[in-house]
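User: Fold this; tokens only.

Assistant: Input:
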Amino acid sequence: MISESDGAVDFFEPAELFSGRTKGVGTGYRRFVSLQAAVAFSIENMPSQQLNGAAIETIDTRYAGQEIRALYERPDFPRGPAER
């Protein structure tokens, strides 16, 4: 799990979302201009079951399942509109 003590996260680096299928529905693979956009899309548009099987990758980091939610809940998560 990610915490504030884990250091800074670059929410503006490019990211890729990989998600499994839940009852025949899934996004599969999607590229985003920023980690912020990928995290916001995941939390705001994916069912929780699908989120549990999802992963977001940046250049050097992979976030899975509840780590994605932890990013969204960080106090430093950018809350403005996300470019997708």
